Amino acid sequence: MSADTNTSPKQKGGWWSLSPLAVFLCLYLITSLLINDFYKVPITVAFLLSSCYAIAITRGLKLEQRIYQFSVGAGNKNILLMIWIFVLAGAFAQSAKQMGAIDATVNLTLHILPDNLLLAGIFIAACFISLSIGTSVGTIVALTPVAVGLAEKTGIDLPYMTAIVVGGSFFGDNLSFISDTTIASTKTQDCVMRDKFKINFMIVVPAALVVLGIYVIQGLSLSAVPQIYEIEWIKVIPYLIVLGTAITGVNVMVVLLLGIVSTGIIGICTATGVFGVTPAENMNASTAFFDWFGAMGTGITGMGELIIITLLAGGMLETIRYNGGIDFIITRLTRHVTGKRGAEFSIAALVSVANLCTANNTIAIITTGPIAKDIAKRFHLDRRKTASILDTFSCLIQGIIPYGAQMLIAAGLAGISPLSIIGNLYYPFCMGACAILAILIRYPGRYS
Fold this sequence. Notes:
Order of helices and strands: HHHHHHHHHHHHHHHHHHHHH
Strand content: under 5%
Number of strands: 0
Largest sheet: none
């Protein structure tokens, strides 16, 4: 490859450099809304066409170099790390389903939670787990299969139930001390995590309480199918292992590997009559072993579309960055800032647009953090609130874009369109409304 091909922006960006994102949104989002069918335009096709367009409009490079530049984005280490998580998540979800872990966990949940607290209970679980482990992706991987099972047993709309998990997962992603967004926002603004947490807490907890109240009210009329099956406690163990290790801060890939291994061991043991469980008909250890392997293979291949989407999105967004799109929008947003409110809104807009262009809230914070720090210094903003704004608005955008990793993996595990989830996302929108209100009324006053 030519030596002069690198990942540094070489072009002076303009609106044209952001046009691939507009092409994608028009092809996928607007078209789906116009024809009122979220499945008519495959998201893979929308990304393929917008990616081809992004390569075509790249200036100053030969075609081979443009494709290389696109591939740099697709092969980004964060993109590849996400793909490995997708692969393991698919293997775990399908093997857990095959050996009965999901059904057992769903039955246990329905047994423990009263019918009218089911929605609120799932939301609280998502908030607690994400706060404990600091990652929305890990929370979604752990809870979405259970949410899908609950939706099937109770008749609750599947996109609605999936949205409860996605929304709750961003509560902890935004607040947790070990979240990468918290670390990035506090480091770029040179403030203490504890102080940023206090401000975030005052802004987003009211939003969480409002949403919790909505779920309690909506759950009042809910009635689950009466329990007629005995709960197989032994089959709940894989999910207890996944949730327990995730809460203790174990890496999400190790968590999923432990889950996969536990589903295999317990599945083989229960199928062959170990632990006093009645063995399945015509089942032996060899058959159970290869059934487990087959389930893992099915789960991995089932993630194929999600992996393709992730690669195409990474390449397209890198091309936008290379063409100067992010630098251009940063310049446009900050050139007419006046006053503290305007400065805070410009920081919010800055990180939001960067997140739209990168589909990664941590990268968006790292990209715009230094500029936000300069704006804060120029307009005498409290750096603790600046860190809170960066984190909150990046999580807001990441939580509602249909091509974000969280939305894609939730939709993939639930087998639904990402767009069908967006309209049911109460918490991210409520969190965003509270964050905007906090800027408008200068709240919290001590930090404004």
